[in-house]
C-alpha cells in the first residue's frame, strides 16, 4: 500500500526536477499544489465512493481506472493549454497517472501486467474487503478521510468554477 505522502513524493520529484532544470529555480507554490492535488485525486474520489457511500465496488476503481483516467488527464492537459497553463495541466496529469502506477506496481518490470482494477468497468475489480484495513476503530480514519476529501474536492470545484467564469469573461 502506498501512503498519501508517498504518492505526493513520487509525483513531486520528477515535476520539481523538471522545474529546477528548465527554470533554474524551485517550483511555484501553485505547481506544488496542483501536483499534490493530482497525486491524491484518485483516492479523494474513490475511497469515499467505495467505503462510505458504497457506490463503486472498490477504492481502486473509477478514478483509478484507465478508461476514466486517460480521458480526464487529456481534458486537464487540453484545459491547461487553452488557458496558457500547460505546465499546470501536465503536472496534474503526471501526478494523477503516477498515482495509478504507484498503486499498480505490477505494471513495472520484471513481469509487467495490467491489473483488472485499471480496466474497470471493462473487467471486474480485484476482490477486496468491504472495510479497508486502514479504516481504524469505528472506521474513524475512513470518516476523517471522507471529510478531508469533501473539503479538498469542494475547494477544487470552487477554484475551477471561478477559473471557468474568469475564462468566459475574456
Can I get a quick summary?
The chain crosses the membrane at residues 61-81, 142-161. With 170 residues, this protein is mostly helical.
Structural class computed from helices and strand pairing: mainly alpha
Oligomeric organization of the protein chains = single chain
DSSP, total strands: 0
What integer value in Å does the Rg equal? 17 Å
Form type: globular
Q: Bin the helical content.
A: 55-70%
Order of helices and strands: HHHHH
In percent terms, what proportion of residues is strand? Answer: under 5%
Report the biggest beta sheet as strand number plus sense, adding barrel if it closes: none
Number of domains: 1
The parts where pLDDT drops under 50 for at least 5 residues are none
The helix count comes to 5
Query: What is the mean predicted local confidence, pLDDT?
Result: 94
Give the N-terminus to C-terminus distance in angstroms: 45 Å
Amino acid at each position: 500500500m502506498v501512503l498519501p505522502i508517498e504518492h505526493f513524493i513520487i509525483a513531486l520529484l520528477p515535476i520539481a526536477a523538471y522545474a529546477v532544470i528548465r527554470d533554474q529555480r524551485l517550483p511555484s507554490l501553485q505547481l506544488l499544489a496542483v501536483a499534490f492535488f493530482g497525486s491524491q485525486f484518485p483516492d479523494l474520489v474513490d475511497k469515499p465512493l467505495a467505503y462510505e457511500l458504497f457506490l463503486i465496488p472498490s477504492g481502486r476503481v473509477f478514478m483509478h481506472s484507465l478508461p476514466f483516467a486517460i480521458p480526464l488527464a487529456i481534458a486537464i492537459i487540453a484545459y491547461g493549454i487553452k488557458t496558457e497553463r500547460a505546465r499546470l495541466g501536465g503536472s496534474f496529469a503526471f501526478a494523477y497517472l503516477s498515482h495509478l502506477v504507484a498503486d499498480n506496481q505490477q505494471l513495472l518490470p520484471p513481469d509487467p501486467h495490467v491489473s483488472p482494477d485499471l480496466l474497470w468497468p471493462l473487467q471486474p475489480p480485484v476482490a477486496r474487503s468491504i472495510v479497508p484495513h486502514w479504516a481504524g476503530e469505528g472506521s474513524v480514519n475512513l470518516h476523517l478521510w471522507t471529510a478531508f476529501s469533501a473539503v479538498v474536492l469542494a475547494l477544487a470545484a470552487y477554484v475551477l468554477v471561478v477559473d471557468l467564469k474568469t475564462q468566459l469573461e475574456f
